[in-house]
Design a protein that fits this description.
The complex is a heterodimer of chains A (about 250) and B (about 230). Chain A has helices at about 1-10, 15-20, 20-55, 60-75, 75-85, 90-95, 100-105, 105-130, 135-145, 150-180, 190-200, 205-235. Chain A is mainly alpha-helical and about 250 residues long. Chain B has a domain at about 25-175: MetI-like (MetI-like fold, Orthogonal Bundle). The chains are: A mainly alpha (about 250), B mainly alpha (about 230). Chain A: Belongs to the binding-protein-dependent transport system permease family. HisMQ subfamily.
């Protein structure tokens, strides 16, 4: 099987891709790993940020507003360079407090920047969804004596999460695609592997075609999975399937 | 004391190119978007397929990879096409500005396609029927009835696309375009003050975002003049 495939590809324009499939696999795994880590950390950060953003306390609200506005209003590439190259300007300080070891690593800088970036976008999505929860439901819950944490856990968040899901799907897809920027700070993700193989084989178009196809496939797989999740979470909003055996078709 | 150690001029050099690229890309993306929307809505199967493949691929592949594909792809394609036409070896060298504008235009045209498709579909069918019954040709209906309203429905989406496009110009530095990121890099290297330079660049992008949002707000007000709305 492998030998016949080898014969099929070895002499074609796609040979550089075929001969380096293992590298592309590792690159894809790194891309997925960076996406998963940043999405998870970003989500953990986003909820408190969203709550602070709608807080009545201006000392809590304004700094978070500024943070969200900055990260949504500037290019991710600048943010990445600011962390990766910019930290070098304060090297002595970072060495003193013992974090230089981390900031020197492109991997750490990538995760840090992507997390801060996606947390800002996700917080804004969550804020919109929380504020869209009908106030009558909150009033009803209060009338039952729910407040604070319990009100959020039982009433506000379940509703808000369902409403936020379509926009959050987009955000996760954007973050997944945005991870391709980490190749610029020397990480060997899917795009990074593509760059290296091109620099050796000069098969520019073939390699980018293959890399693009992998990104495309994973993107639509993710969208499909999120749609399944959305379908599951909205079961109570659909009509109940008809009970009993289906009526026999009229003769 | 000059915190930029005499390299403050790099920002001026860079931001003019960044603004120029974004402004030149916008009409390309709008034309691509209108063509794409026509392709999606036309009662003509091949056009539907081409438009669907276009938006599906562009939305499925990262901007950075698309930029590299289109940049090298268009060069290779033009080279091949011209060689076939003239029958000889043709070597062309697209300057990075034109390449950048074409690349971003193709990418953001796909986003504009979805915006325009939604805007055309938001026009009430009755108006089009009324125009036809008054004897207007399809083209006249498009010009007199549809286009004036499409802008109103499309402006919020186009505004968002513009903001994303503005930020995406930063990626043009990977195809050697001398825009803000590249000039900032020159300043950062020469002064060894990367944080100062990238922070300033980020605030310049933020400034462009804020100006764009203000203009978008005014444009939406203008497009919605004469429209009655629920207000509290």
């Amino acid at each position: 099987m492998m030998e016949s495939l080898d014969l099929l590809f070895a002499d074609t324009r796609f040979a550089p891709v075929w001969n380096n499939l293992d590298r592309f696999l590792w690159g894809t795994l790194l891309t997925i790993e960076i996406t998963a880590l940043s999405v998870a950390l970003g989500l953990v950060l986003a909820l408190p940020l969203a709550l602070a953003r709608i807080s009545a306390n201006p000392l809590l609200r304004w700094p978070v507003y500024g943070y969200i506005f900055y990260f949504r209003g500037t290019p991710l590439l600048v943010q990445l360079f600011l962390v990766y190259y910019g930290s070098g300007q304060f090297r002595d300080f970072f060495e003193d407090i013992g974090v230089w070891r981390l900031l020197r690593e492109p991997y750490f800088c990538a995760i840090l920047t992507l997390t801060l970036n996606t947390a800002a976008y996700t917080a804004e999505i969550l804020r919109g969804a929380i504020q869209a929860v009908p106030f009558g439901e909150v009033e009803a819950a209060r009338a039952y004596g729910m407040s604070g944490f319990r009100l959020y856990r039982r009433i506000v968040l379940p509703k808000a999460i369902r409403m936020a899901l379509p926009a959050y799907t987009n955000e996760v897809v954007f973050l997944f695609q945005a991870t391709s920027l980490v190749s610029i700070i020397t990480l060997m993700d899917l795009t990074g592997v593509g760059r290296v193989i091109i620099s050796r084989s000069f098969r520019t178009f073939e390699v980018w075609f293959f890399v693009g196809a992998i990104y495309c496939a994973i993107t639509y797989l993710m969208i499909w999975l999120f749609n399944k999740l959305e379908h599951r979470l909205s079961g109570h909003l659909r009509d109940r399937p008809a009970e009993g055996p289906k009526p026999a078709p009229a003769e | 004391m000059d915190i930029y150690q005499g390299y403050g001029w790099v920002f001026w050099q860079g931001i003019t190119i960044t603004i120029a690229v974004a402004l030149c890309t916008a009409p390309v993306a709008i034309v691509m978007g209108l063509l794409g929307a026509w392709g999606k809505l036309a009662k003509f199967r091949p056009a539907n397929t081409i438009a669907n493949v276009y938006t599906t691929v562009v939305r499925g592949v990262p901007e950075l990879v698309l930029i590299l594909i289109v940049y090298y792809g268009v060069t290779i394609f033009l080279q091949w096409a011209l060689s076939e036409l003239t029958g000889g070896e043709v070597l062309i060298d697209i300057d990075s500005f034109t390449a950048g504008v074409l690349t971003l235009g193709v990418i953001y045209g796909a986003f504009a396609t979805e915006v325009f498709r939604g805007a055309f579909q938001a026009i009430p069918k009755g108006q089009i029927e009324a125009a036809r019954s008054l004897g207007m040709s399809p083209f006249l209906t498009l010009r007199r009835i549809m286009m004036p309203q499409v802008w109103r429905f499309a402006l919020p989406g186009l505004g968002n696309t513009w903001l994303v496009l503005l930020k995406a110009t930063a990626l043009m530095s990977v195809i050697q375009l001398e825009e803000l990121m590249r000039w900032t890099d020159i300043g950062a290297r020469n002064t060894k003050l990367p944080f100062t330079f990238y922070l300033t660049a980020s605030f310049l992008y933020l400034g462009l975002t804020i100006i764009s949002m203000a203009l978008q707000h005014r444009a939406e007000k203008w497009a919605n003049r004469g429209i009655r709305r629920i207000s509290s």
